[in-house]
């Protein structure tokens, strides 16, 4: 199933470099397992035992639009479910240039050193246009990518945000079943992608740069409202003073928002992925958040709410698709819109007519 | 059809006071026409001729939840459509206490003096709980209510926001067919009601008071984004200085927003309904807006977009209702939510199962 086309979302797998400190035996073993075709049963067992090649293949099934793959993916996910849900899921957002990749490189490497298994996924609806993806330039995570206990997967390409969301949510389950206990989900601020990532994570982190004043201008207010932490990146050298001022301004801004259902008071912190400062503080903060929300049961309650949200969301999208993609409805809708423009009918009368037509189909 | 119950949305009709300057003959005529039952044909003809009793009866049909009334309402609206769409529709919002009623009283009276026919409607989803309605206390519009060329109707009660929206949109058409050329639609900032009113008006006006600093705090950002004008009310006496400062601050805030599709630059102005200052300036501003948007064709384009929005909105709501109100789906949905909580299925697999069940029903 592994394709070598440069357009494949899998290009990072094949390019894992054979660095000197990886011993020759494991290279042979990895190469062998890569070439093998697994039965679905083998795939499941390997995945649950933590095999990254099996995990990659599983996610490829999840991302495939072929119906035979989709059926196999559904079975795989079902058998993985009892092993899943034991991670913390962290959403990371920030505009391009803010240093998401270098932050994830530093943060992920720290977590691996602390004995964690770290999976990095991405939600990038813009890749549906360009067939590129964020994290495509994987050299920006050159250390993390070589870690045995790290797994990096770019955004599934060529899809709607709804499709990417489903695929990412299901990939999370596979990563968790493979024993990954920290899932980082990266996104850029394109359209609704932050809301999507926020709806599938436990903790939502907004990366910012200290700019020249006007910190709050141009930032989508909804994103600040979602953030559990604002981390000001590149707080080093000449930037340090501006970063401290930005921290003050964001702290002030955060106090204007109503308290969160989690009872967590969002925090602003500084870090430098370059100097490797402030990184472990982010992890401490997330642990503090986890402790609080496990105790007051928000953690589990939030995951249930998210499940419910995705269930209803999926149903509503399908109901609409089924209606609007019907050729007869398409034609009638066009006619009714013309009739409305000509003041021959109202939107409500037209809706009634279309719904009746749909019932008769 | 006119009920005398104090809970009726019609209580303002029966309480139109017989003031000294109304001549006895017209009182007799009005009383007679009130008692009469009209045929549907008569109702239509009277309504189109501008008879306010017929208009009130028509709106009562539109607001009724009885299916026989709904059928008659649909026919009435259809026959009114060719006479409609010739007004300017102005949305007016502001928190309770900002002086909406006194502003509308002053603004509406000015328009009547200028030879306009003014209809005042309201969208108040909170009335669905209390069965009350804004403008219930009609003594606050005691002059406007006696004007021959003014028509005041409180919010339809006991309904969802979606229901209120449809009823208000259809009432607008009846008012327009009856020759009302300025339609004022009042709302309070409850939930989505501003967005609803914004989606059915040409011009959206936000009424504000000058407070003690912090003008922008606590105000829903989305509302400022929708506003074509921010009018600072009660800019009189001791308030005048604070009002001028608030104008500065709002002007600054408005410049942070991206330009509007209408190309209109939203304005901030001061007024005092008490001193009757700044009221005619609001009307001049709306005329300026109308001139601009008629010329660049945004006016018509916006109305078409609004029609399309309401068409799709109505369809989507019905599709969801039809699905979720099915007793078998209700039960299966509950079971699936439990299965998700027990990690036995995913939201996406559950959605698929429910959609398949729906197809078989």
What do these coordinates show?
Chains A, B: Residues 1-15 have a biased composition (Low complexity). Chains A, B: GO terms for molecular function: GTP binding; GTPase activity. Chains A, B: InterPro entries: AAA+_ATPase, GTPase_ArgK, P-loop_NTPase. Chains A, B: One of its GO terms (cellular component) is cytoplasm. Chains A, B: Residues 86-254 form the AAA+ ATPase domain. The structure is a homodimer of 361-residue chains. With 361 residues, chain A is of the alpha/beta class. The first copy, chain A, folds into three domains: 35-82, Up-down Bundle (Single alpha-helices involved in coiled-coils or other helix-helix interfaces), CATH 1.20.5; 84-293, P-loop containing nucleotide triphosphate hydrolases (Rossmann fold), CATH 3.40.50.300; 304-360, Helix Hairpins (Orthogonal Bundle), CATH 1.10.287. The first copy, chain A, is built from 15 helices and seven strands. A seven-stranded parallel β-sheet of chain A has the order 3-2-4-1-5-6-7, with helices on both faces. In chain A, helix 3 (40-48) crosses helix 5 (67-80), helix 6 (100-113) packs across helix 12 and helix 14 (327-341) packs antiparallel against helix 15. The longest helix of chain A is centred in the C-terminal third of the chain and has 27 residues, at 298-324. The two termini of chain A are 40 Å apart. The model of chain A is unreliable at 1-18 and 128-133 (pLDDT under 50).
Give the number of DSSP strands of chain A: 7
Strand order within the widest beta sheet of chain A: 3-2-4-1-5-6-7
N-C termini distance of chain A? 40 Å
C-alpha Rg of chain A (nearest Å): 23 Å
Query: Which class of the largest domain in chain A in CATH terms?
Result: Alpha Beta
Class inferred from helices and paired strands of chain A: alpha/beta
Poorly predicted runs of chain A are 1-18, 128-133
* Strand residue percentage of chain A: 5-15%
Roughly what percent helix of chain A? Answer: 40-55%
**Count of individual helical segments of chain A:** 15
CATH architectural group of the largest domain in chain A: 3-Layer(aba) Sandwich
Fourth-tier CATH superfamily name of the largest domain in chain A? P-loop containing nucleotide triphosphate hydrolases
The overall pLDDT average of chain A reads: 84
Order of helices and strands of chain A: HHHHHEHEHEHEHEHEHEHHHH
The quaternary state of the protein chains shown equals homodimer
Whole-number total of structural domains of chain A: 3
Most extensive chain-chain interface: A-B, 44 and 43 residues
State the shape of chain A. globular
Largest sheet of chain A: 7 strands, parallel
